[in-house]
Design a protein that fits this description.
With about 270 residues, this protein is α/β, with parallel strands linked by helices. It is built from 9 helices and 7 strands, in the order E-H-E-H-E-H-E-H-E-H-E-H-H-E-H-H. Strand 5, helix 5 and strand 6 form a beta-alpha-beta unit. About 45% of the residues are buried. It binds NADP nicotinamide-adenine-dinucleotide phosphate.
Length: about 270
Protein backbone atom coordinates (compact mmCIF):
# COMPACT_ATOMS: atom_id res chain seq x y z
CA UNK A 1 0.00 0.00 0.00
CA UNK A 2 1.38 3.43 -0.95
CA UNK A 3 1.60 5.87 1.99
CA UNK A 4 -0.83 8.27 0.26
CA UNK A 5 -3.48 5.50 0.52
CA UNK A 6 -3.93 6.30 4.23
CA UNK A 7 -6.12 9.23 3.23
CA UNK A 8 -8.39 7.25 0.88
CA UNK A 9 -11.94 8.61 1.14
CA UNK A 10 -10.81 11.41 3.47
CA UNK A 11 -10.44 15.13 2.74
CA UNK A 12 -7.06 16.82 2.40
CA UNK A 13 -6.64 20.59 2.21
CA UNK A 14 -3.50 21.67 0.34
CA UNK A 15 -2.30 25.28 0.31
CA UNK A 16 -0.14 26.39 -2.59
CA UNK A 17 -1.76 23.73 -4.77
CA UNK A 18 -1.38 25.71 -8.00
CA UNK A 19 2.29 24.87 -8.56
CA UNK A 20 5.39 22.85 -7.70
CA UNK A 21 5.42 20.72 -4.57
CA UNK A 22 1.81 21.57 -3.67
CA UNK A 23 0.55 20.47 -7.05
CA UNK A 24 2.61 17.25 -6.79
CA UNK A 25 1.17 16.58 -3.33
CA UNK A 26 -2.37 16.85 -4.71
CA UNK A 27 -1.54 14.40 -7.53
CA UNK A 28 -0.11 11.91 -5.06
CA UNK A 29 -3.04 12.24 -2.66
CA UNK A 30 -5.64 11.97 -5.42
CA UNK A 31 -3.90 8.87 -6.77
CA UNK A 32 -4.28 7.44 -3.26
CA UNK A 33 -8.03 8.18 -3.29
CA UNK A 34 -8.15 11.32 -1.12
CA UNK A 35 -10.70 14.05 -1.78
CA UNK A 36 -9.11 17.48 -2.06
CA UNK A 37 -9.62 21.12 -1.23
CA UNK A 38 -7.20 23.11 -3.37
CA UNK A 39 -6.18 26.63 -2.45
CA UNK A 40 -3.80 29.28 -3.82
CA UNK A 41 -4.28 32.69 -5.48
CA UNK A 42 -4.37 31.57 -9.13
CA UNK A 43 -7.92 30.28 -9.47
CA UNK A 44 -7.58 29.27 -13.12
CA UNK A 45 -4.68 26.95 -12.35
CA UNK A 46 -6.69 25.38 -9.55
CA UNK A 47 -9.75 24.80 -11.72
CA UNK A 48 -7.60 23.11 -14.37
CA UNK A 49 -6.03 20.93 -11.70
CA UNK A 50 -9.48 20.10 -10.31
CA UNK A 51 -10.61 18.92 -13.72
CA UNK A 52 -7.50 16.78 -14.19
CA UNK A 53 -7.68 15.17 -10.75
CA UNK A 54 -11.41 14.44 -10.99
CA UNK A 55 -11.00 12.83 -14.39
CA UNK A 56 -7.86 10.84 -13.60
CA UNK A 57 -8.71 9.65 -10.09
CA UNK A 58 -12.49 9.97 -9.63
CA UNK A 59 -12.13 11.91 -6.38
CA UNK A 60 -14.06 14.96 -5.17
CA UNK A 61 -12.17 18.24 -5.57
CA UNK A 62 -13.13 21.71 -4.32
CA UNK A 63 -11.36 24.97 -5.11
CA UNK A 64 -11.09 28.02 -2.90
CA UNK A 65 -8.92 30.88 -4.14
CA UNK A 66 -7.31 32.86 -1.31
CA UNK A 67 -4.35 35.15 -0.77
CA UNK A 68 -2.57 34.04 2.40
CA UNK A 69 -0.82 37.40 2.52
CA UNK A 70 -4.19 38.67 3.77
CA UNK A 71 -4.59 37.96 7.50
CA UNK A 72 -8.26 36.96 7.13
CA UNK A 73 -7.59 34.34 4.39
CA UNK A 74 -7.34 31.35 6.77
CA UNK A 75 -10.78 32.20 8.25
CA UNK A 76 -12.22 32.36 4.73
CA UNK A 77 -10.76 28.95 3.84
CA UNK A 78 -12.06 27.49 7.11
CA UNK A 79 -15.54 28.96 6.47
CA UNK A 80 -15.47 27.43 2.97
CA UNK A 81 -14.87 23.91 4.28
CA UNK A 82 -17.23 24.31 7.28
CA UNK A 83 -20.12 25.54 5.10
CA UNK A 84 -19.76 22.45 2.89
CA UNK A 85 -19.54 20.06 5.82
CA UNK A 86 -16.04 19.02 4.77
CA UNK A 87 -14.04 17.41 7.56
CA UNK A 88 -10.38 18.07 6.84
CA UNK A 89 -8.39 15.01 7.93
CA UNK A 90 -5.14 16.19 6.40
CA UNK A 91 -3.99 19.80 6.40
CA UNK A 92 -0.99 20.52 4.17
CA UNK A 93 0.59 23.88 4.90
CA UNK A 94 2.67 24.09 1.75
CA UNK A 95 2.24 27.62 0.31
CA UNK A 96 5.44 29.58 0.65
CA UNK A 97 7.39 32.47 -0.80
CA UNK A 98 10.96 33.70 -0.59
CA UNK A 99 13.13 36.58 -1.70
CA UNK A 100 16.78 36.93 -2.60
CA UNK A 101 19.26 39.77 -2.11
CA UNK A 102 20.70 42.01 0.58
CA UNK A 103 18.16 42.50 3.35
CA UNK A 104 18.96 46.20 3.77
CA UNK A 105 17.97 46.85 0.15
CA UNK A 106 14.91 44.58 0.22
CA UNK A 107 11.29 45.57 -0.17
CA UNK A 108 9.77 45.65 3.34
CA UNK A 109 6.20 44.66 2.39
CA UNK A 110 7.64 41.67 0.54
CA UNK A 111 9.73 40.60 3.56
CA UNK A 112 6.70 40.99 5.84
CA UNK A 113 4.68 39.00 3.29
CA UNK A 114 7.13 36.11 3.70
CA UNK A 115 6.47 36.09 7.44
CA UNK A 116 2.70 36.33 6.85
CA UNK A 117 2.46 33.52 4.28
CA UNK A 118 5.18 31.19 5.61
CA UNK A 119 4.55 31.64 9.36
CA UNK A 120 1.37 33.49 10.40
CA UNK A 121 -0.92 31.74 7.92
CA UNK A 122 0.55 28.38 8.94
CA UNK A 123 -0.14 29.08 12.62
CA UNK A 124 -3.61 30.41 11.81
CA UNK A 125 -4.72 27.49 9.60
CA UNK A 126 -3.29 24.98 12.05
CA UNK A 127 -5.11 26.68 14.92
CA UNK A 128 -8.38 26.47 12.99
CA UNK A 129 -8.15 22.81 11.92
CA UNK A 130 -6.24 21.16 14.78
CA UNK A 131 -8.97 21.31 17.49
CA UNK A 132 -11.34 19.23 15.32
CA UNK A 133 -8.59 16.65 14.77
CA UNK A 134 -7.86 16.47 18.50
CA UNK A 135 -11.57 16.08 19.22
CA UNK A 136 -11.88 13.28 16.63
CA UNK A 137 -8.67 11.69 17.92
CA UNK A 138 -7.43 11.56 14.36
CA UNK A 139 -5.86 13.86 11.80
CA UNK A 140 -2.63 14.81 10.11
CA UNK A 141 -0.75 18.01 9.39
CA UNK A 142 2.16 18.35 6.98
CA UNK A 143 4.12 21.60 7.11
CA UNK A 144 6.52 22.27 4.27
CA UNK A 145 9.68 23.80 5.73
CA UNK A 146 13.10 23.61 3.98
CA UNK A 147 16.71 22.56 4.48
CA UNK A 148 17.13 26.34 4.74
CA UNK A 149 15.59 25.91 8.22
CA UNK A 150 18.80 24.42 9.63
CA UNK A 151 21.02 27.51 9.38
CA UNK A 152 20.90 31.23 8.71
CA UNK A 153 21.04 31.90 4.98
CA UNK A 154 22.57 35.28 4.07
CA UNK A 155 20.68 36.99 1.22
CA UNK A 156 17.62 34.87 2.06
CA UNK A 157 17.57 35.82 5.73
CA UNK A 158 13.83 36.27 6.22
CA UNK A 159 12.97 33.20 4.19
CA UNK A 160 15.38 30.85 6.01
CA UNK A 161 14.24 32.19 9.39
CA UNK A 162 10.61 31.64 8.39
CA UNK A 163 11.40 28.03 7.52
CA UNK A 164 13.23 27.51 10.84
CA UNK A 165 9.98 28.71 12.42
CA UNK A 166 7.98 26.15 10.40
CA UNK A 167 10.31 23.30 11.34
CA UNK A 168 10.33 24.05 15.06
CA UNK A 169 6.60 24.76 15.13
CA UNK A 170 5.87 21.40 13.47
CA UNK A 171 8.25 19.42 15.69
CA UNK A 172 6.87 20.95 18.88
CA UNK A 173 3.25 20.39 17.84
CA UNK A 174 3.99 16.83 16.77
CA UNK A 175 5.15 16.01 20.28
CA UNK A 176 2.23 17.88 21.85
CA UNK A 177 -0.60 16.22 19.93
CA UNK A 178 0.64 12.67 19.34
CA UNK A 179 -1.26 11.59 22.48
CA UNK A 180 -4.49 12.56 20.68
CA UNK A 181 -3.76 10.41 17.66
CA UNK A 182 -2.83 13.45 15.55
CA UNK A 183 0.37 13.34 13.46
CA UNK A 184 2.37 16.42 12.51
CA UNK A 185 5.43 16.39 10.28
CA UNK A 186 7.74 19.02 8.79
CA UNK A 187 8.92 18.25 5.26
CA UNK A 188 12.30 19.85 4.55
CA UNK A 189 13.11 19.85 0.85
CA UNK A 190 16.37 21.08 -0.61
CA UNK A 191 16.39 22.72 -4.05
CA UNK A 192 13.37 21.40 -5.95
CA UNK A 193 12.11 21.98 -9.48
CA UNK A 194 9.21 24.44 -9.13
CA UNK A 195 8.48 28.12 -9.65
CA UNK A 196 9.99 28.98 -6.28
CA UNK A 197 13.47 30.14 -7.38
CA UNK A 198 12.05 32.32 -10.16
CA UNK A 199 9.43 33.93 -7.92
CA UNK A 200 12.02 34.52 -5.18
CA UNK A 201 14.53 35.94 -7.67
CA UNK A 202 17.23 33.36 -6.90
CA UNK A 203 19.78 33.23 -9.78
CA UNK A 204 19.19 30.07 -11.81
CA UNK A 205 22.79 28.86 -11.58
CA UNK A 206 22.63 28.66 -7.78
CA UNK A 207 20.53 25.50 -7.64
CA UNK A 208 21.35 24.16 -11.10
CA UNK A 209 21.98 20.41 -11.16
CA UNK A 210 21.07 19.92 -7.49
CA UNK A 211 17.32 19.92 -7.79
CA UNK A 212 14.93 17.12 -6.92
CA UNK A 213 11.62 16.63 -8.70
CA UNK A 214 8.51 17.89 -6.92
CA UNK A 215 6.82 14.47 -7.10
CA UNK A 216 9.80 12.83 -5.33
CA UNK A 217 9.63 15.44 -2.58
CA UNK A 218 5.85 15.07 -2.22
CA UNK A 219 6.11 11.30 -1.85
CA UNK A 220 8.84 11.56 0.79
CA UNK A 221 6.76 14.02 2.82
CA UNK A 222 3.60 11.92 2.77
CA UNK A 223 5.51 8.75 3.56
CA UNK A 224 7.18 10.38 6.58
CA UNK A 225 3.88 11.78 7.85
CA UNK A 226 2.18 8.40 7.50
CA UNK A 227 5.09 6.77 9.34
CA UNK A 228 4.72 9.16 12.28
CA UNK A 229 8.00 11.02 11.67
CA UNK A 230 8.11 14.54 13.14
CA UNK A 231 10.35 15.87 10.39
CA UNK A 232 12.02 14.63 7.25
CA UNK A 233 14.74 15.94 4.96
CA UNK A 234 14.07 15.14 1.33
CA UNK A 235 16.93 13.36 -0.47
CA UNK A 236 20.16 11.78 0.75
CA UNK A 237 22.43 14.64 -0.36
CA UNK A 238 20.29 17.19 1.43
CA UNK A 239 20.20 15.02 4.54
CA UNK A 240 23.98 14.60 4.46
CA UNK A 241 24.49 18.35 4.05
CA UNK A 242 22.40 19.06 7.15
CA UNK A 243 24.02 16.31 9.23
CA UNK A 244 27.60 17.29 8.33
CA UNK A 245 27.09 20.90 9.31
CA UNK A 246 25.80 19.91 12.76
CA UNK A 247 29.38 19.28 13.89
CA UNK A 248 30.69 22.59 12.53
CA UNK A 249 30.53 25.86 14.52
CA UNK A 250 27.31 27.73 13.65
CA UNK A 251 29.26 30.85 12.74
CA UNK A 252 31.29 28.88 10.21
CA UNK A 253 28.17 27.36 8.68
CA UNK A 254 26.65 30.82 8.14
CA UNK A 255 29.98 32.07 6.76
CA UNK A 256 30.00 29.21 4.24
CA UNK A 257 26.35 29.91 3.34
CA UNK A 258 27.27 33.55 2.67
CA UNK A 259 29.93 32.45 0.18
CA UNK A 260 27.47 30.07 -1.47
CA UNK A 261 24.58 32.52 -1.76
CA UNK A 262 26.56 35.73 -2.39
CA UNK A 263 25.06 37.64 -5.36
CA UNK A 264 27.45 37.40 -8.36
CA UNK A 265 27.67 41.22 -8.65
CA UNK A 266 29.06 41.51 -5.08
CA UNK A 267 32.12 39.49 -6.04
N1 LIG B 1 11.45 24.74 -4.61
C1 LIG B 1 12.39 24.69 -3.69
O1 LIG B 1 13.59 24.69 -4.02
C2 LIG B 1 12.00 24.60 -2.24
C3 LIG B 1 12.97 24.18 -1.31
C4 LIG B 1 12.63 24.08 0.02
C5 LIG B 1 11.35 24.39 0.44
N2 LIG B 1 10.42 24.80 -0.47
C6 LIG B 1 9.06 25.12 0.04
O2 LIG B 1 8.12 24.36 -0.67
C7 LIG B 1 6.85 25.01 -0.61
C8 LIG B 1 6.23 25.00 -2.00
O3 LIG B 1 7.04 25.77 -2.87
P1 LIG B 1 7.35 25.34 -4.37
O4 LIG B 1 8.78 25.00 -4.44
O5 LIG B 1 6.36 24.38 -4.86
O6 LIG B 1 7.20 26.77 -5.07
P2 LIG B 1 6.14 27.33 -6.13
O7 LIG B 1 6.12 26.48 -7.34
O8 LIG B 1 6.48 28.78 -6.28
O9 LIG B 1 4.74 27.19 -5.37
C9 LIG B 1 4.38 28.05 -4.33
C10 LIG B 1 2.90 27.89 -4.06
O10 LIG B 1 2.52 28.79 -3.00
C11 LIG B 1 1.42 29.57 -3.41
N3 LIG B 1 1.46 30.91 -2.83
C12 LIG B 1 2.48 31.80 -2.89
N4 LIG B 1 2.11 32.95 -2.31
C13 LIG B 1 0.83 32.78 -1.89
C14 LIG B 1 -0.11 33.63 -1.26
N5 LIG B 1 0.18 34.90 -0.94
N6 LIG B 1 -1.33 33.13 -0.97
C15 LIG B 1 -1.65 31.86 -1.30
N7 LIG B 1 -0.82 31.02 -1.91
C16 LIG B 1 0.41 31.48 -2.21
C17 LIG B 1 1.55 29.65 -4.94
O11 LIG B 1 0.27 29.83 -5.54
P3 LIG B 1 -0.27 31.19 -6.19
O12 LIG B 1 0.91 31.92 -6.78
O13 LIG B 1 -1.25 30.70 -7.21
O14 LIG B 1 -0.92 31.91 -5.06
C18 LIG B 1 2.07 28.27 -5.28
O15 LIG B 1 1.00 27.36 -5.42
C19 LIG B 1 7.12 26.41 -0.07
O16 LIG B 1 6.73 26.46 1.29
C20 LIG B 1 8.64 26.55 -0.18
O17 LIG B 1 9.15 27.41 0.81
C21 LIG B 1 10.70 24.90 -1.79
Amino acid sequence: MASSDCWRGKWALVTGASSGIGSALTEELAAGGAHLVLTARRRQRLTHLRKRLRTAHAVQVEVVAADLDQPDAPEKIFAFTSERGIIVDLLVNNAGVGSYGEFCASDLPRELGIVQVNCSAVVHLTHLYLPGMVERRSGDILIVASTGAYQGVPYMATYAASKAFDLLFAEALAEEVKRYGVRVCALCPGPTVSEFQKVAGVPEQMAAGMEERADQVARIGLRALAAGEHSVISGFTNWLGVEVQRIAPRRFVTYAAERLFRPPQRG
